[in-house]
Each structure stands twice: as C-alpha cells, then as structure tokens.
Amino acid sequence: MRWIREHKLISALLAILLALSIIFVVSLTGNGNDNVATDAVNKGTNTVSKGLSAVAGVIKKNVTGIFSYKKLQKEIEDLQEENTDLRRQLAEAKIEREQLDQLEELADVLNFDYTKKKFKLVSADVTSLDGSNWTNVFTINIGSESGVEVGDAVVNGMGLIGKIQDTGKGWSKVVSIIDDDSKVSFKLARDTKQLGVVKGNSLGEINGYMLDSESLVSQGDIIITSGLGTYPEGLEIGNVKDVAYNSNTLLKEITVEPAVNFKNLEKVSVIL
Fold this sequence. Notes:
It is a single chain. The chain is α+β, with helices and mostly antiparallel strands and 272 residues long. The chain has two domains: 1-110; 121-272, Rod shape-determining protein MreC, domain 1 (Thrombin, subunit H, Beta Barrel), CATH 2.40.10. It has helices at residues 2-6, 8-28, 34-110, 112-118, and strands at residues 121-129, 137-140, 153-155, 160-168, 171-176, 183-188, 195-200, 206-210, 222-225, 236-246, 251-258, 267-271. The strands form two sheets. It has a six-stranded antiparallel barrel. A six-stranded antiparallel beta barrel has the order 6-7-8-11-10-9. A hairpin with a 4-residue loop joins strand 10 and strand 11 (251-258). Helix 3 (34-110) packs across helix 4 (112-118). The longest helix is centred in the N-terminal third of the chain and has 77 residues, at 34-110. It is elongated.
C-alpha cells in the first residue's frame, strides 16, 4: 500500500492496463450473449477512458508544473545575472569617481595648466611602509621602467609628499618631507618674496624658519615650494600653526601642519 501511495501515477497506469486486459478477455470469451459482453466492454471502455483522462490530467499538470518551474528558474537566473552586472557597474563607477576626484584634487594643487606644460605625472600605489607610525619612508610600485629617477618629487591631491630616494625596476623608495633628514625651501603663498626652510621631525610635523628676520609670517599662512633646490615651484607644503621669535638666531621659527595626511597614503604621483 505504501508503494502505491508513493507511486500514484504508475499505479493508475497499471490499473488501466489491467482493466483493458479484462475487457479484452471478456469480449473474446462471450458465450453468445453479445449484448451483455458489448455492454461490459462499453462500460469498461468508458471507465478506462475516464481513467485515461484523469491520468492525462495528472501528466499534463506535472508537465506544466515542470515547465513553469524551469521558466521560474530561468527568470531567477536572469535576475541574478542582472544583479551581478549592476553590482559590477556600480563598483566600476565608484572606482572611476574616486580616480576623478583624485585627479581633480591633484590638478588644483599643482596648477594643472602650468604642470601640464612642464611635467609628466605618473601615478603609483604605496606598497609598503617602513614600519613607523608616520610614513617617513615608503615604497611605491613604479620605478626606472616608468622613467622615475632619484630626486623626482612625489605628490598627491593634497600637496607635496617627498622625493624619490632610490629606484629600480618596478619599485621606488620615497622619503617624505616629515623625515628628520628632509629639508625643503619654501615661500609664503600670499607673499612669494618671503622665503624660508623647513624640515621634518620625529613627531610627524614640520619645523623651520624664515630667512628674513623681519618676515611678516603669521599663523594660518600657507607655504609652498620655492623652486630652489630639488622640488618644483608652487607645490603646497602645509600651513603655519605657530610662529615664535628665536632670540639666539634672531630668526622667526615656525611650526607647520603638513597639507598631506601621512597616516593615510594609498595613491601618489611622481613628477618626472
């Protein structure tokens, strides 16, 4: 009985075949009572016909269900594929937007019209740090094969980062302006005749002094590269946080907050 319940369609077909067999035997062995045999055959045929119709209905229902399931499955697969494609397009758009933002920032800092005429920029990723909390020295993933040379300036969208200290095929080492051994000649952005020199310190800040003891430097002033020495002219270094007069040197000393966030360096550009 359990097998019959679990195999209803097969059981129905077997029952119909059995009924057809009985009808066939009755029709052959009729003892002259043709009307009785004929009636039995007709009744049996009608019963079988109804059974076949029922079975056909079950088969049709199952077949329709199978095709409906396949259609639904195809629609689900199409939606999943469309969703994956939309996610990919969204990711690509996000990357393009981030790259565009970085280029726009870089163009503002470098005065793009001026830079485009004189310099070639090559973008790079930061691949490793020197292990300190501040990015004093780090490695990027481009080198001599891209035309990078020792002394080339390194920047990002916020301003000056440092310069190439060493280079090889596929890599370059960058020393930043906050390194103890780094020195940069600068001028005030609002008054380019006022010059000075800054260097990094172990605290991740920049300290320096004005060359003219009568300088009118003040807190909040933006300093940029002077063009004297290694770095091209006009790259933003940072803004003056503090000004103090040193009675021993008779010079005005300044503390500068770097324009670049050295704790979060991922992409940079090298000025060739």
